[in-house]
Design a protein that fits this description.
By secondary structure, the protein is an alpha/beta fold. Helices cover 41% and strands 17% of the residues. Helix 8 links the parallel strand 8 and strand 9. Bound molecules: nicotinamide-adenine-dinucleotide. Nicotinamide-adenine-dinucleotide binds next to helix 6 and helix 7.
């Protein structure tokens, strides 16, 4: 095991040299990162194929391309983001001026999951570098090939004192979390999120937790069902459902349920052919543990489509389950796999009441042409973020901060939000040396009259 304490201390010493605070240094490092990703592109795509059977298109679209776009956007705006911000000063602070400085935290730990093992490691790193931090990266041990490529890429292009990568399983994670970091950015499951937050609390380390949960997809009767089906099936079966913001289940108006299901079946066939196992575009389950967990959620009588499991290939067919109730095992936890349960409703109030009973989701999707329904859902349900008449796509905008709320996470990133999340906003009041109001000092005035006029 690498000497974690030594690496953190080395990074801390480097951070205190001030080198990483220089904005041109940060810009240069982001360009280096871009160069590295471009050079490693083939190796990254190959590793993602080995770990998850991701097609080159899907791997570029959701991992490599996302990271390159994010670097380009960050480099374009970084100078403006990094400038101190002048804000208003109240008249009580006569002749003073007020500023907010974006200050890097110092040495930050970034932990990533296995489902988008490249993107979810590098996207936060972009924010970490942009904000001027030193970063220690911990890739998931389950996406082994991608983890190896990440180690090679980082070690070839960055000095350990600035960006280091630590591989390993449970004991390495535990060891890492004993250290006193200046910030922890964690992406992963809710149970591990709790472990991370508990460990961070020991040092009062601030955290961002990008977690998961059951993201509902509501389909109203007033909608273009064919288009809705296409967008839902794409969002659900992308990465074989192993996406934190995948529609976990469909909650459809009774009047259009049968028609929607028919369109969804047709869409699956159009996307992946008669036998999705033969499709080059259909991803595999990360490991046997998850395959086993997902197989146990399948209820034979409720499978309307798919349902095939081939453990040898770590394959689970795109599956639709209907007649599902809230008591079924598939509705207990986040599915995180290619199983789509369908539930039905009669009124939007019923939907809102039901969803409020569960943990606040990371994402929520509503398909409707009805502005009233759209407003009801957005106004009355709390969730990380989402789309109206689409799935997943809110994630792909650098102008929309991405994160959860409550059990689905805390903090948000992407675009400027990535810079902000890795920066402490330091407020400074620059007072005048010319003038000093006597009023605030003892001995105080004998009456509160003036004070009450000012402070109301
Ligand atoms: P995970 O929580 O098992 O692992 C995430 C990271 O934590 C890995 O680096 C892993 O090595 C580490 N880890 C595992 N056990 C640990 C422990 N006991 N102590 C400390 N660290 C530990 O998550 P996962 O299975 O890799 O990913 C799936 C989950 O991540 C899903 O719940 C999904 O919704 C969520 N997720 C969220 C987002 C998001 O952006 N919000 C993105 C992707 C995945």
């Amino acid at each position: 095991m690498k000497d974690i304490k030594k690496i953190r201390k080395k990074q801390q010493s480097y951070f205190y040299t001030g080198a990483t605070k220089d904005v041109s240094f940060r810009m240069k490092q982001l360009s280096v990162l871009k160069q590295a990703v471009l050079k490693y592109e083939d190796r990254i795509l190959e590793a993602l194929k080995k770990d998850l059977n991701k097609s080159a298109f899907e791997a570029y679209e959701t991992e490599v391309g996302v990271v390159l776009t994010e670097i380009t956007h960050t480099v374009k705006h970084l100078k403006a983001w990094a400038k101190s911000e002048k804000v208003k000063t109240p008249f009580t602070h006569f002749l003073s001026r007020s500023y907010i400085y974006a200050e890097p935290y110092g040495v930050v730990l970034i932990m990533a999951p296995w489902n988008y093992p490249f993107q979810l490691m590098i996207a936060p790193l972009i924010g970490g570098i942009a904000a001027g931090n030193c970063c220690i990266l911990k890739p998931s041990e389950y996406a082994t090939h991608t983890a190896k490529v990440l180690v090679n890429l980082i070690e070839e292009y960055f000095e350990e004192k600035f960006v280091a990568v630590i591989e390993g399983g449970k004991d390495v994670n535990e060891r890492l979390l004993e250290e006193n970091f200046d910030y922890i950015f964690f992406t992963g499951s809710i149970p591990v999120g709790k472990i991370v937050m508990e460990a961070a609390a020991k040092h009062l380390t601030p955290v961002t937790l990008e977690l998961g949960g059951k993201s509902p997809c509501i389909v109203d009767k007033d909608v273009d069902l064919k288009k809705a089906a296409k967008k839902i099936i794409w969002g659900k079966f992308l990465n074989a459902g192993q996406t934190c913001v995948a529609p976990d289940y469909v909650y459809v108006h009774t009047a259009v349920k049968e028609e929607l299901i028919q369109y969804m079946k047709d869409t699956i066939k159009n996307f992946f052919g008669e036998d999705p196992k033969e499709s080059e575009d259909y991803v595999r389950i990360i490991n046997h543990k998850h395959l086993h967990r997902l197989s146990n959620l399948l209820v034979k009588d409720k499978i309307l489509f798919g349902g095939e499991v081939d453990p040898e290939q770590r394959y689970i067919a795109p599956t639709i389950m209907a007649g599902v109730t809230w008591e079924d095992a598939v509705m207990e936890d986040e599915i995180f796999g290619p199983i789509l349960p369908i539930l039905e409703y009669h009124s939007i109030d019923e939907v809102i009441d039901k969803i409020r009973n569960f943990a606040k989701p990371l994402a929520l999707y509503v398909f409707t042409k009805n502005k009233h329904i759209e407003k009801e859902v957005i106004d009355n349900l709390s969730f990380g973020g989402g789309c109206v008449n689409d799935t997943i796509m809110h994630l792909a905008s650098p102008y929309l901060p991405f994160g959860g709320v409550g059990p689905s996470g805390m903090g948000a990133y992407h675009g400027k939000a990535s810079f902000d999340v890795f920066s402490h906003r330091k407020s400074i009041l620059r007072s005048s040396t010319l003038f000093d109001i006597k009023f605030k000092y003892p001995p105080y005035p004998k009456t509160l009259n003036l004070l009450k006029k000012i402070m109301k």
